[in-house]
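Run log // design_07
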């Protein structure tokens, strides 16, 4: 028998993650020394948040690709295109607008701003497609660890759903649609806040609205299923519990989207939202206890 293949992490994705960490540090410094504001937030807050998110995305896929035995060349190329066609164009556009001191998302005030926003939109669509492709090729691997074999595709699926929430933000609001119908030229098309204008009171660091619905909450939570579910699989090591966790996480993402679309801030849930959230928590706990009990009964019979 030959020596086992040495596992190497995907180089471009790993380098991308390191670059994003460096950008996060630079952006953090910018938040301290640069007093410029955009919609009530420091101009460097968005590059900071996106650098952190893209860094997690890159290092997660670099790790996942290092574990595969099949389709390695295809996955390597998909990962490289994800860096060059998705992460770098989008973070570059966001950082470019931060340097200029203007809004990056939904900004169509000038030809340059509209072009930058179109670059971001194209990169996001490509990123969605590449993430789907990476997920498909990761699924068709032979794995001894069955819990991880379930966690990766479920995490990718929920992450894709979370990414898709971003597309809801690009649609004109009812007020913007009415203005466009009337022939008005707008400086902004799209919004992440529901029930109020972007730029109102927000939570520290995240900037999520405290006075209205905010689609970014569900976007963030769903997107990072890619990291959360594999971590849960490493912890519980059982397929039924991973499935329960995935269903609960998907339910949480859906709940947050529903709450935001009703114009309701994350920190001010009404009775209906609390009731549904309580039902979700109860369902997940009951299911987890049930599958854990079944496992405890079945395990001794196998000994």
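design_07 sequence
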């Amino acid at each position: 028998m030959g020596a086992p293949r040495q596992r190497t992490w995907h180089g471009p994705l790993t380098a991308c993650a390191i670059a994003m960490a460096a950008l996060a540090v630079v952006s953090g410094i910018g938040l301290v020394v640069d007093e410029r504001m955009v919609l009530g937030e420091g101009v460097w807050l968005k590059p900071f948040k996106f650098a952190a998110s893209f860094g997690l995305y890159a290092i997660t896929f670099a790790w996942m690709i290092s574990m595969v035995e099949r389709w390695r060349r295809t996955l390597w190329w998909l990962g490289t295109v994800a860096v060059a066609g998705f992460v770098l164009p989008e973070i570059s556009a966001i950082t470019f607008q931060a340097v200029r001191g203007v809004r990056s998302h939904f900004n169509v005030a000038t030809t340059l701003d509209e072009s930058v926003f179109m670059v971001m939109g194209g990169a996001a669509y490509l990123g969605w497609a590449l993430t789907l492709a990476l997920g498909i090729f990761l699924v068709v691997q032979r794995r001894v660890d069955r819990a991880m074999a379930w966690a990766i595709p479920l995490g990718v699926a929920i992450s894709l759903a979370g990414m898709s929430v971003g597309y809801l933000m690009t649609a004109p609001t009812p007020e913007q649609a009415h203005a466009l119908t009337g022939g008005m030229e707008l400086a902004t098309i799209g919004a992440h806040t529901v029930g109020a204008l972007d730029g109102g009171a927000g939570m520290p660091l995240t900037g999520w609205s405290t006075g209205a619905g905010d689609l970014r909450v569900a976007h963030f939570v769903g997107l990072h299923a890619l990291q959360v579910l594999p971590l849960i699989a490493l912890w519980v090591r059982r397929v039924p519990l991973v499935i329960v966790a995935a269903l609960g996480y998907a339910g949480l993402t859906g709940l947050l989207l529903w709450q935001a679309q009703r114009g309701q801030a994350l920190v001010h849930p009404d009775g209906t939202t609390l009731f549904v959230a309580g039902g979700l928590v109860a369902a997940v706990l009951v299911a987890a206890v049930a599958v854990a009990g079944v496992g405890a009964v079945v395990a001794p019979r196998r000994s």
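Residues 10-142 form one domain.
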